[in-house]
Amino acid sequence: MARILIVDDSPSQLLGLKRLVEKLGHQVLTAADGAAGVEATRREKPDLVLMDVVMPNLNGFQATRSITKDPATANIPVILVTTKDQDTDRVWGMRQGAKAYVTKPVDEAELLEALNKALAK
User: Fold this and answer.
1) 29-to-18, 19, 43, 45, 87 alpha-carbon distances in Å
2) CATH code at 8?
3) C-alpha 58: how far from its chain's center?
4) Is the pTM of this model over 0.90?
């Protein structure tokens, strides 16, 4: 069982992802925007972060870059989970340090595969 931080500003998306991740047997922590997500990652040191992109304060690309470039959190994998489905978004997200890019609505099998791959490293 892993400790997974879910960062999303939409309460309904957050709840849906939380239920899905708990169903897969993991413990869930949550944060409501990118800035809170970065702070929670530094404080809680989760095993993995699921990060939305379109959020107030600090978007998911910025938050991912902050997490993956900070020596204290660089070893924590980030998976972007977003409605932004353009190839340029995917490339930019991976360049920020994300280990995977999953589009919403989330396919359970795709998320499970991304989680397993990121947690195995």
Assistant:
1) 8, 12, 12, 11, 29
2) 3.40.50.2300
3) 14
4) yes
Exposure of 52 by Cβ count < 10 A (0-12 exposed, 13-18 middle, 19+ buried)?
buried
How far apart, in whole angstroms, are the C-alpha atoms of residue 90 and residue 98? Answer: 9
Look up the domain containing 18 and give its range. Answer: 3-120
Kindly state the tokens that stand for 118: 């990121």
Q: Are 92 and 50 in contact (CB under 8 A)?
A: no
Q: Are 28 and 52 in contact (CB under 8 A)?
A: no
Domain count, the chain: 1
Distance CA 77, CA 85 (A): 20
Task: Name 51's bridge partners.
Answer: 7, 80
- Average pLDDT by stretches of 10, the chain with 121 residues: 97 96 96 98 98 96 98 98 96 97 95 96 77
Structure tokens at 46: 């989760």
What secondary structure letter does DSSP report for 32?
S
Strands 100-103 and 48-51: unpaired
